[in-house]
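Page header: ASSEMBLY MODEL / two components / 230 residues total.
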Amino acid sequence: AQSVTQLGSHVSVSEGALVLLRCNYSSSVPPYLFWYVQYPNQGLQLLLKYTSAATLVKGINGFEAEFKKSETSFHLTKPSAHMSDAAEYFCAVSERPNAGNMLTFGGGTRLMVKP
Amino acid sequence: GAVVSQHPSRVICKSGTSVKIECRSLDFQATTMFWYRQFPKKSLMLMATSNEGSKATYEQGVEKDKFLINHASLTLSTLTVTSAHPEDSSFYICSAFRMEDGEQYFGPGTRLTVT
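Prediction written out in full:
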């Protein structure tokens, strides 16, 4: 069985500040990990994914995440927040590298960016 | 890019009636589509996997007679909530799997309110 925990349902940062969204997972098999972003009234959009290659994964919009097996974590970061980054972010885990297999989602983190 | 639409975006229905939600992949064919349910401040929970031309596969605890899924074409899957009750009120999200890149693409969701 797999599960995902996102610490902090709401995160607020100032524009230009570091963004850190936390994700911890539990998996009985080597996990494949994903971060999705959901803007208001839009579908989920894939930000990045880890599929057992490089542990530091770079995604779109300047986001990156690092897979740390020892910590069972896959935290999402961005050096400098923009107002346009305000959205809901979901971490997800799958047993397969492509997302065609079942995804298990975390509870989501709403990122707020203050001017 | 790959686009998935859902219709309607919002629906209000009376208790005891049925409501149909459509999920369409607009610019690609999808043999597999997924239906998720999202409770307030909760993560997305997979309800069922919809396969074109065959019966849907339901997750444990999801009543298949209550949540009817039909995947009659490679671009359309429908979810019908039968005899809806207030506890069925939720945000329903679909996704479509695109073989070309092995990714799931998500619709914008449908807000169902049962009065």
